[in-house]
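User: Can you recover a sequence for this backbone? Please restate the input before giving your answer.

Assistant: Of course. Working from this structure:
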């Protein structure tokens, strides 16, 4: 199967520190050279792939294609080769990668080693700069780098392209018609009357929080470095996650998204002496507070590097949300949701609206669909900066990406004006309800009972609004599908859109 490379020693497996000697073959284009791509508006310079892999289209003018040296593997589509490698154990993956340069490149895909590492549940975690080097327990500079010049593959090149494409052409020069309004502050009456259904950014409230003045990455490391926080599919000590955050090249970086941070960090939430932060006053009463100790998850600490974030999703249980930035900045792009409009470009929703399919990474969506999205009716965009808070109305599609390393707190809530939406979701989409503890068997009935006990007049109005909402939606659906159309009342559990299987424990 073509020219052979030395087989790497089994002593490299797994997580074992070992003295090794690696060979580096650097033929052809240097890793520092660049290629130019046309973005939405400006050229973007992207460095050459570290193994000198090029996009598939280059094969049509090339004199040589080293994939032909891969034996029977040369007959297979690149995606199928990757699927075969996903079924190999680490030793088999390394050995197959030593048979020829083409398979070497395929065996070095970071996502393969990410899956192996996350599935191995190591007792000691030390980030080494890449998933492969972390799995092997060696520093990244000890890894071999074999030039794979004249290998042409979109499936190998695309993740690298997405990981190194500049975000600036997509996140700046926002058309004025799309811009999310920026306000100094709001009172509760104005929010309820004018803003509950609209996204906006508030500039002043978060700057009054003690945690805004006190928190930094260094302070968090000093106080909480040994505490494990949830980062999508793993629980890592904060010091390990910060090492990862500061030194990774992932297309979709792991996003720390922890729902138990208040308890882990011993924080006090409220506006009394000694409290650390509070919900901005304008958002008023959260109707899910009637659940008391049985309420679903509502608040999360969010930490992530540049390029981390979440793909398009709606917030759980028809809740609204606020997202407060303590450091860094985030780009948001949002769309309202109603029966007459399709989902955002590049987003595909199942018939029951419980499953959302979109490009696997934020950068891939930006490259492929951002231009169309900006021209789509209802599009809203904005950059929420340090010390600011953004409001996400219930039911709005939104994608968010960090423009720089970021620390944020987010909280979901149900304002009075959206009671009917929450009642409808809990009643008619029970399979998509999330975040409740197992002892809550029927969230809708419990919500109604709690409201009847504490706010009976509000419940009566909410139920009347629910019937009107239900009737209007049914008439609209029948206009689109006919009287026997599926009304989509069953679905799947909520996902924040971090990637397939990565947020299984996030409500």
């Amino acid at each position: 199967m073509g020219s052979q490379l030395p087989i790497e020693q089994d002593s490299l497996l797994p997580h074992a520190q070992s003295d090794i000697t690696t060979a580096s073959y650097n033929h052809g284009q240097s890793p520092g050279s660049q290629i130019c791509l046309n973005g939405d508006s400006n050229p973007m310079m992207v460095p050459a792939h570290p193994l000198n892999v090029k996009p598939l289209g280059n094969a049509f003018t090339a004199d040589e294609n080293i994939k032909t040296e891969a034996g029977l593997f040369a007959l297979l589509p690149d995606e199928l080769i990757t699927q075969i490698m996903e079924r190999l154990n680490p030793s088999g993956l390394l050995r197959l990668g030593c048979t020829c340069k083409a398979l070497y490149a395929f065996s070095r895909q970071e996502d393969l080693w990410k899956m192996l590492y996350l599935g191995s549940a190591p007792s000691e975690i030390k980030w080494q700069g890449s998933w492969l080097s972390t799995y092997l327990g060696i520093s990244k500079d000890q890894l071999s780098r074999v030039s794979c010049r004249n290998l042409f593959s979109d499936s190998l090149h695309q993740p690298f392209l997405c990981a190194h494409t500049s975000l600036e052409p997509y996140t700046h020069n926002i058309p004025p018609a799309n811009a999310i309004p920026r306000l100094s502050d709001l009172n509760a009456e104005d929010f309820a009357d004018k803003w509950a259904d609209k996204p906006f950014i508030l500039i002043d409230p978060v700057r009054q929080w003690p945690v805004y003045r006190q928190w930094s990455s260094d302070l968090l490391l000093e106080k909480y470095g040994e505490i494990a926080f949830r980062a999508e599919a793993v629980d890592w000590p904060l010091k390990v996650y910060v090492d990862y955050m500061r030194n990774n090249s992932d297309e979709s970086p792991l996003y720390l998204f922890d729902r138990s941070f208040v308890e882990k960090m011993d924080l006090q939430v409220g506006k009394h002496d000694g409290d650390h932060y509070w919900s901005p006053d304008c958002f008023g009463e959260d109707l899910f507070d009637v659940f008391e100790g049985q309420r679903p998850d509502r608040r999360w600490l969010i930490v992530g590097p540049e390029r981390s974030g979440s793909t398009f999703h709606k917030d759980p249980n028809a809740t609204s949300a606020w997202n407060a930035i303590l450091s860094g900045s985030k780009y948001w792009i949002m769309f309202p949701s109603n029966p007459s409009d399709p989902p955002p470009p590049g987003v595909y929703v199942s018939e029951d609206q419980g499953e959302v399919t979109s490009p696997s990474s934020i950068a891939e969506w930006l490259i492929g669909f951002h231009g169309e999205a900006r021209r789509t009716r209802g599009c809203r965009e904005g950059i929420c900066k340090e010390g600011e808070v953004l409001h996400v109305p219930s039911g709005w599609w939104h994608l968010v990406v960090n423009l720089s390393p970021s620390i944020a707190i987010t909280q979901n809530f149900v304002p009075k004006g959206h009671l009917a939406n929450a009642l409808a979701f809990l009643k008619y989409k029970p399979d998509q309800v999330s975040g409740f503890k197992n002892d809550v068997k029927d969230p809708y009935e419990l919500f109604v009972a709690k409201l009847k006990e504490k706010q009976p007049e509000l419940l009566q109005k909410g139920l009347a609004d629910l019937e009107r909402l239900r009737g209007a939606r049914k008439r609209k659906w029948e206009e689109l599908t006919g009287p026997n159309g599926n009304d989509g009342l069953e679905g799947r559990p909520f996902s924040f859109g971090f990637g397939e299987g990565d947020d299984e424990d996030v409500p």
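That completes the design. The chain is about 30% helix and 15% strand.
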